[in-house]
Amino acid sequence: MPSPLLEMRNVTKRFPGVVAMDDVSIDFRSGEVHAVIGENGAGKSTMMNIVAGSLQPNEGMIRVDGSETAFPTPLASQAAGIRVVFQELSLCWNLSIGENVMLPALARRAPLLPMASRRAGHAAKPVLDRLGLSSMDPETPVERLTVAQQQLVEIARAISQNARVLVLDEPNSALSPAESARLFDVVRELRAEGVCIIYVSHHLDEVLELADRISVMRDGRLVTTFDKTEETTTADLVTHMVGREMETSDQYALREMADHAGETVLSVSGLCVPGELEDAHLEVATGEIVGIAGLPDSGTAVLADAIFGTVQRRGEVSMNGIRLAPGRPAHSIAAGMAYIPADRRGAGALLSMSVAENTVASALGRFLRRGFLRRRPIRDTSEEYVAKLDAKVASLGQTIATLSGGNQQKIILARGLVTGPKLLILHEPTRGIDVGAKAEIYAILKSLAEDGMAILMISSEMPELILHTGRVVVLAEGQVSGQLTGADITEEAIMSLATVSHRRAA
Q: 4-251, which class in CATH?
């Protein structure tokens, strides 16, 4: 058995009111894929931040190659050969793909010796090719890319640095099946080259496919580490994660949709965003959960922003028969629309602000008196929604950045619900959260629909669409290629519509 490359011994990390890691001892070896799994709040994110040098443990030690060390800064971690790719992206939006990939090399250059974008792109080309991105122009600004493409650029940057330890946090949460398959091939290649890969994921099927060893965390503690065998099942992993066996109904809370929808709330016709959407049309009625499906370049990435008004559009968007002006999100909110974006940390959460401030941020006018915020109503409203959505928080004053992904999502959802919406738009509502938190989110959405709310859910997760919507509208090449209802909503039917070529049809 090879000696550990990276070890944590009796590591404890405390935050006010929370023990995020509790006496954890774990080791990682060269040439292995070591998966770390657990529900949101289990301690995985804290572990990654300690390995990355972003957080310091209160107790315990870290060893590299058997020698005790410390990572007081991210640079110290990187000097030890550790690279961490977090789920929430850290790209420089004003730079090109090549410049982002080569950013560590650029940072080491003297200020008066900049690397031209074309030169950076040339240097980045081999690693982009390795990830199957040979068709992308390295000089393209990353702000023009889809979330999936941005995620691959982030991974490319880490791979380019010849890491000894590569930590991947939900690395394919926005990737297509083909992109995921290529990423998995690269992970296997790196393992064969002797790289230690720490793989953090809520997708248990891919954990079973890739991992050599699997560590399970729960409530800040390491529950167990075991070698994966042919007999290891998803049910085994879930049982270790939650501490009990889970029934299918616990995991998915199958929806019981009404036989017919109510009155039309949202009507979209001729919706166009140049280069991304063309003549899209759909409707959502009261009590209905409508899913939106499509491949990464199908137009799903921009659909919610176009409807809500955060990007310029052509075409008509109406709420309850009243046409909304484009580019005016405030009018959409006033008309009864709430939007939960896919980029939870970048566009959703106000990371430096408290739970209470995040909860009421979309409805501050309700809490003003003579120009001053009324603290008691803010507290009462925040307590109401934290309780209603069963969000796990230490206090209303806790910054949202310190919450687990699932609890961040609940607070962002609360912020939308505080406005009293008639229509709730969710883009990737359970991206990067665990199976238990997913079940809670699904139950909340089902309850909202039963109370008459119209819900539009854009998702890349097939089970989410199949089990939790009554109707699925499928996009392909920027156009609606068809819709499915009830028992007709299957993975095969969705993929058939998602791969329609409108160009060939024309």
A: alpha beta
